[in-house]
Amino acid sequence: MIKTNPKNARAKRALEKKESKLVENVKTALFIQGSTGTRLLHDAMCDLSAFKKPDIKRFQKKNDIKPFEDASPLEFFSEKNDCSLIVFSSSNKKRPNNLTFIRTFGYKIYDMIELRIQKNHKLLIDFRKTTFQLGLKPMFVFNGPVFDSHPTFKHVKSLFLDFFRGQTTDLQDVAGLQYVITLTAAEVEEGKALPSVYFRVYKLKSYRSGQKLPRIELEEIGPRFDFTIGRVEQPSPELEKEAMKKPKQLETKTKKNIETDGMGDKVGTIHVGKQDLGELQTRKMKGLKSRFDQVGEDFDDQEYEYANDEVVEDYEPAQKKQKV
């Protein structure tokens, strides 16, 4: 990004907002309609933007853009509107009802993935009307081990978590947990296409249970989408390394000689000085004094030193008396 000198105070404030920060702002999503968009795609983007409000921007006019062939118009819109998340809609015979989710870093394309909406969809208008406060952060549930093992589904998981992350805060309020977004996918089979991703949204409802904790139930509020994964563009290693880099101010300072074991317990190493064993007192009780030392048959040392400094050499144990 080329730095420019501001001409007035207003331009200076606008440039300061775009500068890099230790804790980044809430990511704004830009919804763009393609030249071949459909009514379904328009309604789907409206429903997705309802959960992202108020951090959204939408274009009303259609734009002839092909993200995987020429992404320069998207980079221009990203910089002009200061948006790092883009949802682009397009539809054709080969890829019908297609939503392209795009992330940018430094107003350059970071990664892209196509999610096509299947026919068995339901929009918000098809469900019973329910309301919840805007700006709330949803809870996420990922059903299926593929979200932790397959690279494409890892991409999908990272995308949706980043898309609905919201504002970073340490405050925890149970009243703010009002809805849950679930993503479900089956196992990946060799030689077959990737399984679909089932997108569902539920609202939390609490009822009296007669106990200390209430009874929680989930009610589907929509929208309901079954996504088929299309083309995927992963970030380059250099761009990914730069995007994942943490500033020095946020890096946790490691304490020397302190580590955490596998059970989560904190273990520390203590360094002490060298001990002088010559000053160590070992005989403190009466029974351990030298005059009470006893020598048995199994004593085979050649020299034995008593407390009165007398040394007996070639000591032979006394013979036992035998009965005749």
Automatic annotation (TrEMBL):
* InterPro entries hit by this protein: Brix (IPR007109), Rpf2 (IPR039770)
Instruction: Indicate yes or no for the key word Nucleus.
Output: yes
Superkingdom to which the source organism belongs: Eukaryota
Which terms are listed as keywords in the entry?
A: Nucleus
Query: Which GO CC annotations does the UniProt entry carry?
Result: nucleolus
Q: Which Pfam families match?
A: Brix
Subcellular location(s): the record lists: Nucleus, Nucleolus
Known SMART domains for this protein? Answer: Brix (SM00879)
GO terms (BP aspect): maturation of LSU-rRNA from tricistronic rRNA transcript (SSU-rRNA, 5.8S rRNA, LSU-rRNA); ribosomal large subunit assembly
UniProt-recorded Gene Ontology molecular function terms: rRNA binding
Has the keyword Magnesium been applied to this entry?
Answer: no
Q: What are the Brix domain coordinates in residue numbering?
A: 27-238
Database matches in PANTHER family? BRIX DOMAIN CONTAINING PROTEIN, RIBOSOME PRODUCTION FACTOR 2 HOMOLOG
**Similarity-based family:** Belongs to the RPF2 family.
Q: What is this protein called?
A: Ribosome production factor 2 homolog
Species assigned in the record: Saccharomycopsis crataegensis
